[in-house]
C-alpha cells in the first residue's frame, strides 16, 4: 500500500441532529441503557478482581518454589572484598551514589539509561534482609558491571567520567577473572547438591501442586479472553450511545488520517475493515467515504487518530529535547577544555 488516502465527508443536511433523546422509564428512575451499563461495569470489575486473585496465587506459587537462595558459599564474601578494593580507588566516588539527574540538569538521562545503578544501591542489596538481596554472586557482578556500562553509555568517550568508568571496569574484570574458577566450582557443587535433594523430595506433592497451578493458569487465560470480548461488547454499546459525529469532526478526522505514519495508517484501515470486511484496505490508493462509515467506526477512528498523533507529537518533542541536552553537554565540554587550555597558558 502506497499510503495514498482520499477522504470524503458528504454529510446529509441532518447535521444538527445528535443522538436521539432517551426518555426515562419513570420519574427519578435511570434510563434502561444506563442500568445495563452499570450492571456490565459491576460484572467486569468483579471478574477483574477474581482474575487478579488467581494471578497472585500463581505468582506466589512460583515465588515460594524459588525461595532457596543459590550459592550461599564464600564467593559473595570474596566479591564483597573485591568491590571494597574497587571502591577505595580514587575514581570510585563518582559512582558511590545514584546520578543526581535534577541537579545536573540531565533531562534525557532516563531515556538513555533504562536501569540506573550505583555502588550505594549495590551495597544496600548486599546487606538487605528481604527478597531484594542478591541470591547469586553473578547477580552482584552484573550490577557492578552495569555501573560502568551506564557511565560509558551516557558520557562521551574521552570525557572524565567515561575514562574513570573504563579504568575501574578494567580493574574489576581483572579481579573477577581471578575469582571465577572458585565461583564455577561452587556452582557445580551447588547444582549437584540441589539435584540430590530434589531426588529425595516429595515429588508427588510437587507434581500435584504444579498440575493445580497449570489448571489455574489455563482457566485464568480463558477468563481473560472472555473478559476481553465482554469489554469489546461494552465498548461497542458505549459507542452506539454516543452522539453522532459532526461534519466538522469528519473533516478533521480525514485530515488527521492523512497525517498518520504508514504504520498507524495501516492500523486505522484495519479498524474500518473490522466493521466492513469488503473495504479494500490493501489497495494502492484508498478512498474513505466518511458518510459510508458507521458511527461506531467513526468514533473508534477518532479515538485512535487522536492517540496516534499525540504519541507522535510527544516522541518528536522528546527527540528534540534529547538533541538539545546533547548539544548542551557538548558546549559544556568545549568550554571546559577551553578553560583548561587558558589555565595552562597562565604564567606560574
TrEMBL record:
This is Transcription factor GTE1. Transmembrane segments: none annotated. The keyword Transferase does not apply. The keyword Iron does not apply. Residues 1-34, 312-348 are annotated as: Disordered. It comes from Acorus calamus. Keywords: Bromodomain, Transcription, Transcription regulation. SMART domains: BROMO. It holds the Pfam family BET. Residues 1-10, 314-324 have a biased composition (Polar residues). Residues 235-316 form the NET domain. Residues 87-162 form the Bromo domain. Residues 339-348 have a biased composition (Basic residues).
